[in-house]
Amino acid sequence: MPAHAGVGAAEWHPAARRSRVADERTYAWLLLPALLTLGVLSLLPILVTVWLSLTSWNLMVPTSGAFVGLENYGRMLADRYFGNAVMITLILILGPVALQMLLGLGLALHLHRDLPLLRASRAVFITPMVIPPVIAGLIWKVLLIPNLGGVNYFLGLVGVSGPNWLETPIWALIAVGLVAVWEDTPFVMLLLLAALESLPTEPFEAATVDGASAWQRLRYVTIPLIMPAILVALLFRIIASLNIFPVIYVMTKGGPGRSTEVLSYYAFTHGFQFLDIGYASALAMGLFALIVALSGLFMLLRVRFTGAE
Amino acid sequence: MRHSQCKDPSERQGQRASLSRRDLLRLAIGTGAATLSASVPRLGRAAAPSPSGKPYAGTTLQVLAARIPYVDSTAKFIGEFEELTGIKAQLDLYSITEGYQKATVELAAATGAYDVVWAENMSIPQYVKAGWIEPLDPFVNDPKYTDLGKFRPDEIPAGPLNSYRADGKLYGLPFHAGCCIMYYRTDILGKQGFKTAPDTFDELLEVARKIHTREVPAMAMRGARGRDNNMWIYPIFFNGSGAKYFKEYPKDMHPTVDSAEAVKSVEFYCTVAGDYGIPNAASASFDDIILAIQEGKVAMVIEGAPLGSRILDRSKSKFVDQLDVALVPKGPAGRFPPLNAHGWTIAKASKRKEAAWEFLKWSASPEVHLKAALTGTHVSVMRNSVWKEPEFLKKYSFGGGKYLALFAETLKIGSPLYRPPVPEWPQMGERFSISVNEALTKQKPSAQAMRELQGDLLKLFKDAGYYKA
Predict the structure, then answer these.
(1) Which of A153, B40, B115, B443 is 20 to 30 A from residue B154's alpha carbon, by CA?
(2) Of A113-117, B364-368, B428-432, B437-441, where does mean pLDDT reach its minimum?
C-alpha cells in the first residue's frame, strides 16, 4: 500500500488527481474575468501613464506627443514647486496618520470595554468614515469660517480665540490635517477593535494574576498581540492618506499660496487645467514612487516589529 | 450532454466539471458581448434631409453644457426646439469646473461625441489654437443657413460677442455674460456720512477705513487662489492702476507684471481685501461673499451682477432693504469691470454642424432668452431687445430698475481684454492667482511675489514660442 494510504488515499488516486486539476482549471476560468477586469482597470492605466510620462503630449497642441524619454522627469526634479509639493505631501501624511493611529487605538480600547452604553454608541464614532471626502471638506470649510462657522464660536465659549483657519499656511495645513484625522480615525478604530475582540483572555488573566498594572498589560500584552493589526492599519492609512485631494480641492485649492498644494493636486492642475498630459503623468509617477517608498519603509517596520518576512 | 460512462465517481465529476467549463465559456462570451454593446456610447444620428420645412428633422444632437442659470432654464423647455426643427437636443450637464475638464478631453479626442460644446470666452484662444472648434462665419453669412433679418447678430451685446472672436473669426455665440458690480449697505455707509458708494480707488480706501469694524468688515472680494477666484476680481485694480500684462499685446508678448503699477495694484488689493476685509478673505470664493452679505457680515462686496438674484433675494438675504448697487470703482487708468461670457461652440469633429447651427440660432433668439429669464434666474440676457421687455424689467426690478441699468452699462464698458485672451491663460491665470494670494496672506511682500511671477511667466511664454529671449 502506498505511504499515503489511509484517509487521504483517494486524493492521490490518478482519477482524483485529474479531477482536482480539472477543478483548478475551472477555478482559473472563473477567476479570469475578475483578473482581466482588475488588470484593465489597475495595471493598464499605470502602464499607459508610464508611457505618457515619456512623451510631450499636451492636449492643446495637436502635433505634440513625441517620445522625449526622461525629459519630463528631469523637468520634475528641477521644478521647485515639485519639491514643495512632496514636502507638503509628507507633512500631510505623517502628521494625520500618527494622530489617527493614536486616537484610533484609544477609541478602540475604550469601546472594547464591556459597557452597554459604549457598545451601543459605536455607530456614532463610525459616522465620519461614511461621509464622502468632498462633503466633509464642504462641511468643514463652512464650520471653519472665523466669524460665521461654528468652530471659533465654541472655542470662544471656553475662552479660546480661534485662528483664521484657512488664511495662513500653518493653520490651513493644520485644518486640512484635522479634517483628515476626523474622517479616517474611525477606520483605524474599527480595525483595532476587531483585533482586540478576537484576542484570547488567558494572557490577560495570567498577567493580572502576576500583578501587572493596566499600563503594563497594555504595553506588554495588548499591543504586541495586536501589532499585526496595527501595522495593517498603518499601511492602509499611509496609502489612503495620499488621497487627501478631495478635501484640499474643496477647502483650499492648494492655498494659501502653495501651502497645501500636495503632489496629487499639483499633478491635477497640470493635467486637467493646463492640459500638459506628459508632465502630469510624470508627476503621477512621482507620486507612485512616493507610495512605493513608503510601502517599502512599512515592510521594514513590519519585519522589525513582527519578525515576519 | 454526453452520457456518463465513467468507471469512477471522480471521473464523472471531472466530466461534469468539463461540461461546466464549456457552458461557462459560452456564458462569459455572451455576457461580454452584451456588456460591450450596452457600453457603446450614444452617438447623435444624422438624418437624411426631410422634404418638409425641417431639413434636419430626425437628427439627434449631443450638447455638453455647464450648469449656468440660462442652461438650467432652457433645459426645461428644450422640447420646443425639437417641435420647431425636428432636431432632438440631448443635454449633458456638468458644473463649470467639471464641464471644462470634460469639454477639453472630448474636444481633444475629436470623436464627434458632442456636437455643441459649452465654452467660456477665455477658453476660445486655447480651443482655436488646438483646432477644436468650428468658425461660425460661414453659417452666419450664408443665406442658406441664416436669415440675417431674423437672426440680428447686431442685437447681441458687442462686448460678449466679440469675446468669442479669434483671428478675426467668430467661434461662438454667448448666452450669458458675467460682469461685476458693487453691492453696498446704505445704512452702514450713511452712518459715516457717505451718501453714495465710492467711485474711485481712493474713495474706496477712505470709505473702507472709516466704516471697517471687526464685527462688520468693510469689504469682501474673492481672495481664494484660482483663475476664477481672485483673478476674477483682482484685475479691476491691476487694469485700473495702469498695469499691463504684456509689453504690447499681441505684438510683444514679454510679460510686464512686475511693473511699479502692478505691484501697487497688488498692495492696494491686499489692503482693501485683507486689512479691511472679512476674516476668511484669502479663502473666499463667491459662495463665501454671498453668504457674508446675506448675513449682514460685511458692508460692501464686489461680486457678479448675475448673482444679484441671490444677493437681492428677500427670502435669503437679511438686509435687502438696506442694499444698493453701484459700478465697480475706477482707478487712475479707468474703470475696468470684470467681464466674461459663457456660450455655445460647434465641435470641429461634429458630423452634424448644420443641425448644431440650428440649435445655436434657436438658443440665441430673443424669445428663448426672455423665456429663460422669466422662468428661471437668467438675468444676463444676450439680446438687447429683451432688456426692454416689460415682464423682464418687472421681474428684475431691484432699486427701481437701477440694478438692471448698471448691469447693462457694465456689459457695455466691460472689455474682452480684462484678462489676456491667450491660449496660455490657464497656466498664466493660475500662476498669477498664487502670487496674489501669497501677497494677500503676507507670505511674501507684493514686490517679491510679482517678481517671482514675472520670472515664471517669462519662461512660460518663451517656452510657448512667443519670443526667444
Answers:
(1) B115
(2) A113-117
Check CB contact under 8 Å for B224 and A258: no
Question: What is the pairing mode between strands B169-170 and B300-304?
Answer: unpaired
Q: How far is CA B198 from CA B207, B331, B406, in A?
A: 7, 11, 15
C-alpha cell at B108: 481633444
> What CA–CA distance (Å, rounded) separates A273 from A254?
14
Cis peptide before A256 (omega within 30 of 0): yes
The backbone region for A253, taken as left when phi is positive above 0, alpha when psi lies in -120 to 50, beta otherwise, is left
DSSP secondary structure string for all residues of B120-150: EGGGHHHHHHHT-B--SHHHHS-TTT--HHH
SS3 A198: coil
Residue type, B50: S
For residues A81 and B55, what is the distance between their CA atoms, to the nearest angstrom?
Answer: 55
Summarised one tens digit per residue, pLDDT across range B96-114 is 888 988 999 899 889 999 9
Would you say B120 and B177 are in contact if contact means Cβ atoms under 8 Å apart? no
B36 shares contact with chain A (CB less than 8 Å): no
Which of B215, B280, B348, B438 to substitute to test the interface with A, most A CBs within 10 Å? B280
Most B CBs within 10 Å, among A20, A275, A276, A277, to test the B interface: A275
Average pLDDT, integer, range B159-165: 91
Phi-psi region of B146 (alpha: psi -120 to 50; beta: other; left: phi over 0): beta
CA angle B179, B185, B186 (to 5 degrees): 115
The pair phi, psi for residue B234, each rounded to 5°, is -55, -35
User: Which grid coordinates are listed for B345?
Assistant: 461652440
Q: Which residues of B touch A59 (CB under 8 A)?
A: 104-105, 108, 130
Rounded CA-CA distance B296/B320 in Å is 10
Q: Where do runs of H (alpha helix) occur along B134-285?
A: 137-140, 148-151, 158-162, 186-191, 201-211, 230-233, 235-240, 260-270
C-alpha cell at B448: 517679491
Read off the pTM.
0.84
pLDDT at A2 over 50: no
pLDDT digits (tens, 9 = 90+) for A68-113: 999 999 999 999 999 999 999 999 998 999 999 999 999 999 888 8
Instruction: Name all domains of chain B by residue range, CATH numbers in brackets.
Output: 60-177+340-399 (3.40.190.10), 178-339+409-463 (3.40.190.10)
Q: What is the ipTM of this complex?
A: 0.82
